[in-house]
Design goal:
The complex is a heterodimer of chains A (175) and B (69). In chain A, 84% of the residues lie in helices and 0% in strands. Chain A is built from 5 helices and no strands. In chain A, helix 3 crosses helix 5 and helix 4 packs antiparallel against helix 5. The relative contact order of chain A is 0.08. Classes of the chains: A mainly alpha (175), B mainly alpha (69). At the A-B interface, helix 1 of A face helix 3 of B. Chain B: Keywords: DNA-binding.
Chain lengths: 175, 69
Amino acid sequence: MRFGFREKKVDERVATLQNKIYRELYSLVVIICGISLVYKVFFAEAANPNIWTEVIILVGGAVYYLVRASALGIFSDEVEMHDRSSKLKLNTKKFMLALLVGIGISLIFATINSQLYGDSTDETIYFFFLILIACLLIYIPVLFGIMVLPYVVAKYKSDKVNEQQMEDLDDEDER
Amino acid sequence: MKNKKLKMARVEHDLSQQELAKKVGVSRQTIGLIELGKYNPTLQLCLSICWALDKSLDDLFWQDKGSEQ
C-alpha cells in the first residue's frame, strides 16, 4: 500500500556509481581522521589532545562494517575469496600481524625504558629483558583481542548466517 | 563491444534512447552506454529492456564466445 505515492525509480548504473563515490568518501574520511589523529598525538601543543572524535569515527566505522558484513553473511565470502587468491590465509595473516605488532611495540618500549632507567650496562640489559617480557605478556593478548578475536567471531557469525541461508534455499527447493 | 542488436530493436520500435529509457526506468545515458558496450546491465535491467522491446534475452544480449556483435 503506497497511499498514491509513486515508487521512486533508481537507475542502477547511477546507484552503482554513487556507491563507488560513497566508498571513496569513506576512505577519504578515514584518511583525514588518521592524519588528524597523528597530528594531535605527535605535533599538537596540548598536553591532553582530544582525540575521541577521531577514534570513534575510525573504530566505530570498522566495527559497524564488521557487524553488518557478518550479519549479511558476506564476511565469509570475503575470506573465501581472499584465501583463494592468497598464499597465506587471512586467519594466519591476522594472527601473524598481531604477533609482529605485539613484538614490535614490546621491543620499542623495552629499548626506550631500559635506556631511560638503567644506570649501568648490567641494569640496562636486565631492565630490557624484564620490560620486554612484561610487555609481551600484556600486549600480545591485548592485540589478539583487538585484531584476531573480532575476526574469529565475525567469521563464525557469518558462517552461521550462510548456513541458515543455504538451509532456507534447500527448504524452498523441497517445496 | 557495441550492442547493435539493441539499437536495431529500439529503432524497429521507433523509440529514441530517451523514450526507451523512460519505459525501462533508467536514464538516457544508461541506454546509450549499454548500446556502446560501455556498461554491463544487471539481468533485471536486461529483462526490463527485453520486455519493453518485445524481444528475448538471446535476441538482444546473446553473443558467441569471442565474437563481435
